[in-house]
Design brief:
alpha/beta, 15 helices, globular, binds zinc ion
């Protein structure tokens, strides 16, 4: 089974730079920049930046590790260039990922405007270009807007995505905590409508994190599809409990980016049985799904393992997994050539 996996060329549509850089690389970057760390030994550091099951019980706790440590360590042109370069190389070497859409929020890498955003973005593009050249893979960047940012800040991120749309920035995303169930309200989702419309008119694609955490329901998924019109949705697993949401996903041809280990670790699903129920329900209703990593190092996984989880637990057959990979390629923001 594992042998077959290595013959498959994998594609990762949902991976955050903040959760994808190896601890030893982050450790080196932190030291290179004289970053003050709260721990003395490397192994304590690994513990600090990894979402072990005893430490992380929710999406918010998972995100906290990224905000507190990895994003901060990645906040310099040198750090983001190396981070992007290393993530793409690692995905290819470990899992033979030949197409990768890497997402991050450039405004969470510029130390609250102390650093110039264009320098951060150029550095990320340099890292991506170098990795593509070395490994012969395809890659693009997706800029994440943040739910916790105000409209003005998110608007700047959209401006930057548009500015660099011919340099490998192919889409935008909306990420961040779903706590307080803010995203349930259509009027909250509507606040982003003009931003997504502007990006769309400039030729950018969109994906939105929604319907991830338990208790959020499928209303957010429906509001996002109707108002923000993304090609894809990050997670969206709550829609499996709502026929209207699944009907809409199918009608509008919106593809879901499923991240198995992430959902298990953040307790977005109760366990493998619920994950199986969700993925099978989508499959039966004709909702297209793809398998992705979300944050391979933070979650201690990789693309090959994500596929194995779905295959070895008999959630999908080998043929169905091949179909998810075909969809990932078809709905990738990277044009086929
Ligand atoms: Zn994500």
């Amino acid at each position: 089974m594992a042998q077959k996996d290595m013959t498959r060329e994998l594609i990762d549509l949902h991976i955050h730079v903040g959760g994808a850089v190896a601890p030893h690389i982050l450790w080196a970057i932190a030291h290179q920049q004289g970053f003050k760390l709260p721990v003395k030994s490397y192994f304590e550091f690994v513990d600090l930046i990894t979402a072990s099951p005893d430490k992380v019980a929710s999406l918010d706790e998972y995100l906290k590790i990224m905000h507190t440590w990895t994003e901060k360590i990645q906040s310099s042109p040198m750090a983001i260039e190396r981070s992007v370069y290393e993530v793409i190389g690692k995905e290819y070497r470990s899992s033979r990922v030949t197409q990768i859409e890497l997402r991050f929020n450039p405004m969470k890498r510029n130390l609250h405007s102390e650093l110039d955003l264009d320098h951060i973005i150029h550095a990320a593009i340099r890292g991506m270009d170098q990795a593509m050249l070395e490994y012969g893979v395809k890659a693009c960047l997706i800029f994440c807007l943040a739910r916790e940012f105000d409209h003005k800040l998110n608007s700047i991120i959209v401006d930057k995505a548009i500015k660099y749309r011919h340099r490998g920035v192919l889409g935008i995303d909306l990420a961040g905590t779903e706590s307080h169930a803010l995203e349930l309200k259509p009027e909250v989702v509507a606040q982003y409508e003009d931003l997504f419309e502007r990006a769309r008119k400039a030729g950018l694609k969109a994906t939105v994190h929604t319907g991830e955490t338990r208790g959020t329901g499928a209303e957010g998924v429906i509001a996002v599809i109707e108002k923000l019109k993304p090609q894809r949705i990050g997670h969206g697993i709550r829609a499996a409990y709502d026929e209207a949401a699944m009907k809409l996903l199918k009608e509008r041809d919106v593809v879901l980016e499923i991240c198995p280990t992430s959902n298990l670790q953040t307790k977005a699903v109760e366990g493998i049985k619920e994950l199986e129920h969700i993925i099978r329900t989508f499959w039966d209703r004709g909702v297209k799904v793809t398998i992705n990593t979300d944050g391979p190092y933070l979650l201690n996984t990789d693309m090959r393992r994500e596929i194995e989880i779905v295959e070895s637990n008999r959630i999908l057959t080998a043929e169905q997994i091949d179909q998810t990979l075909a969809w990932a390629r078809e709905y990738s923001f990277i044009r086929r050539s």
